[in-house]
Specification:
This protein has 184 residues and is mostly helical. It has 10 helices and no strands. The longest helix is centred in the last third of the chain and has 19 residues.
Length: 184
């Protein structure tokens, strides 16, 4: 069982030994979203936001943390929706997702788009388009355009079933690869 002091060493390890990013990223999500004490969750959140803000922390750790947040486990709500029920915490997460969108990494940006979608799925598609438009430099990469289009299709069809992030990403990659082959 982690103590309230576990987050600080995890933060330091995330900076110094990025080769273990896959394991570290899951630990961050585990400490903030599972049945740990409020003290552990609060200190983990504090350091998680430091990870997001720290330019010395590898982008892939940040990407993987968002990836874990947007996925659901055992058919439940995605972690980002669970922790986003607290309005103050939700606002902080949205603030950090918005900052992370500006990092030039398509995998991170796609995860952030999906996180934003989950946080605001009750709004119309235009809200997501505005988020992407305001936070990415032009030209917007094709995989990002495709992901926004795929999510827009859900809105237009009034689909109750949500596409998983993997489905949106896979569809975006297929479209991007087929366009790339056609351009040669």
């Amino acid at each position: 069982m982690p103590s309230i002091y576990s987050a600080s060493p995890l933060y330091i390890l995330s900076k110094k030994y990025p080769k273990h990013w896959s394991y570290y990223s899951w630990l961050w999500v585990k400490f903030i979203s599972q049945n740990y004490s409020n003290d552990i969750q609060n200190i983990s959140l504090k350091y998680l936001f430091k990870v997001f803000d720290d330019e010395l922390v590898n982008v892939f750790i940040k990407t993987r943390i968002i990836h874990h947040l947007v996925n659901s486990r055992k058919g439940g709500l995605p972690y980002i929706e669970r922790i986003g029920m607290n309005q103050k915490l939700r606002n902080r997460i949205i603030e950090h997702i918005t900052k992370l969108m500006k990092i030039n990494c398509i995998a991170l940006q796609l995860n952030c788009i999906y996180a934003y979608y989950l946080m605001f799925r009750d709004r119309d598609h235009r809200h997501l388009q505005d988020f992407v438009s305001h936070n990415l430099k032009r030209p917007i990469p094709k995989p990002i355009q495709q992901a926004v289009y795929q999510i827009g299709t859900l809105y237009e069809n009034h689909s109750l079933g949500l596409a998983s992030f993997e489905e949106i990403l896979e569809e975006s990659e297929i479209e991007y690869e087929s366009e790339d082959l056609n351009c040669r």
